Each structure stands twice: as structure tokens, then as C-alpha cells.
Amino acid sequence: xxxxxxxxxxxxxxxxxxxxxxxxxxxxxxxxxxxxxxxxxxxxxxxxxxxxxxxxxxxxxxxxxxxxxxxxxxxxxxxxxxxxxxxxxxxxxxxxxxxxxxxxxxxxxxxxxxxxxxxxxxxxxxxxxxxxxxxxxxxxxxxxxxxxxxxxxxxxxxxxxxxxxxxxxxxxxxxxxxxxxxxxxxxxxxxxxxxxxxxxxxxxxxxxxxxxxxxxxxxxxxxxxxxxxxxxxxxxxxxxxxxxxxxxxxxxxxxxxxxxxxxxxxxxxxxxxxxxxxxxxxxxxxxxxxxxxxxxxxxxxxxxxxxxxxxxxxxxxxxxxxxxxxxxxxxxxxxxxxxxxxxxxxxxxxxxxxxxxxxxxxxxxxxxxxxx
Length: 372
Hints:
By secondary structure, the protein is of the alpha/beta class. The chain has helices at about 5-15, 20-30, 35-40, 50-60, 60-80, 95-100, 130-145, 160-170, 190-200, 215-230, 240-250, 270-275, 285-290, 305-310, 315-325, 330-340, 345-355, and strands at about 85, 105-110, 120-125, 150-155, 175, 200-205, 230-235, 255-260, 280, 330, 360, 365-370. Helix 7 runs parallel beside helix 8 (about 160-170), helix 8 (about 160-170) packs across helix 9 (about 190-200) and helix 10 crosses helix 11 (about 240-250).
């Protein structure tokens, strides 16, 4: 899907010194990107405040010709790689994004454009996430995706990747917003993940094809992650995490900010705890997300009731082991003391519970109960 006047939109994008705000003001004043270029010599007249430098740029036929040539090459690449291009004035552009400040005037989309019109939950957090953070992000993304939400995140290491993977594992929909071109795999090890997201959702960027990842681009792309979502869920974040930037942007955009608490002695949770202190909604279960936003709570594939029923069907020794466990990991010696069972009896029971999805084994022969 290529938006109308794509060549003209791309020409404006490739002119040096024009950004989203200036392009948007010009197009608003003249009605279309085509009209801006057709009246380029007087285009700045109805746009006070754009300055003489911009007027000179729009009068530079050589610069416009160079940008136009690049626009044609970009269009050829878009068609060749089956990548969609949406302008902020075309009907396919996400309506929730159109109303934010400094909206991207162009969106590159690899995958299903129609998913950008569905309700989204942003799941974000630290790149250097803990096992707990990745597991919680994956669980929340899985359950929310099963209930019809599109999971949007940034395809980075840690929480982002876990959120995307969680949605994909239950055949849900997910959207990745990149700080580089949609044809660039970053991180490089996420190439397969990005391909899977494009096949089952969408990979989105405002940056031209081939744009390399640079540090300054990631805070810029964060406004798109929060802008696409109805709510932003922070799973795990430090005090200086980029997730806090996204949370602030979400508040500026009128989005709800939610946070999952972690351990009080972990720096990885300090950012999420700070958000809760500042008024973010504390979330302990997926139902909290739906209730906070007054969304209807659809049934999930595996409800707490089903898990409780499975526990009740266990033989008494297995139920005793399960009662001795909690979501905090316990070592095998502690479980032996709590259950008063010999190791030869306890280990087969733990294996049975693990195979049934009721217990999870962690490195170091630690065990924890799986919550519904």
C-alpha cells in the first residue's frame, strides 16, 4: 500500500532541514504535499515562523531535484520489498497517531497495515532485564494478545523482545517500532524475530529505508510506541531507563501509564516503582490493565480457574509439594524440609508438576510455582 502523492511526500522528507513539524505545517497550509511542491516558491508565505532559510530551500531547484531523484529510488525499493508507505493524511494512517504532537508525517510498514487500527498495549522495559522481568513481560503479552490486544514494543533486547515473543507464541498480533529503517535488522540477532513480527503483525518506522540505528533515533521513535497504544505498561526499568521517556511521552499524549512492581532491592525495578509513586497504576494481573482502561475483559486461553482445577486433580503428594512452593524460587533442600519427603520421592513429583506446567525449574536446581 503506497499513499497518494508518495513521490512528493518523499521529496519533502529528503530535503535537508525539513522535519516532521515543518512538513506537516506546509502540507496543512497548502492541502497536500503535491501542492507544496507545485507552489514551492511561495509555499512559506501562509506559514509564518518557518524562516527565510526554509524559503531559500524551497526555492532551490537543484536541491529539490536531488531529493526527487532519491524519492524515486525509495519508491522503487518500497515496491520491490513490498513495504507500505503511509502519509499522515491518508485513511490507512493510524488515527490514534494522527492526533499526537510531532506526529511522523510518513510511516514505513513491513507487514499488515490494518493491525495499526486495532487497540494496542505497549509493553516496554529494560534491555538488561532480569529473568523475572522477561517472564512477566512474556506472560502479560501472551494473555493480552489472547484477549485481542495488539502488543506494541521496540524490538530491543530484554523486555521488548520478550513481549513480542509472548504475543507470537500464542499466535497473537504484535507491532515493532524501530529506530532505524524497517529493512534493517537491529539488533542483528533479532533478524528472525523481526521477520516473524512482519509475518504476524507489522514492523514500523518513520525513517527511510537503509537508515542505520543511531542512539539519538531511539528516543525519537518512543513517541510512536506510546502514540500507537491506548496504554503503556512498564514491566522493569531503571531510574534512567528509556522506558521512563516513553512513559512521560505517554502522559503528554493522554495515554494511561501502568507499571508492574518488582523487588525493592533491585535497581532494575527502581524506575517502575518511581512511576507508581508518581501515580502510575500498579498492575499485578492482566485484568488490572483491562479494568484501568474500562476495556471488556475477554476470557483467556488458560484461566486461573482452569489452573486451580488442574491442581485439584493432582494426587495428594503432588498437591503437598505444590503448597510448599511459591512464586519465589526455593531450592531442593528447602522443599525437602517443608514437605518432609525424601529426595527420591520429591524429585519425580517435581518433574511431574513441571511437565504439567504447574512448576518451573530455574538454574541452580531452584523451583517456583507457576501462577495463572
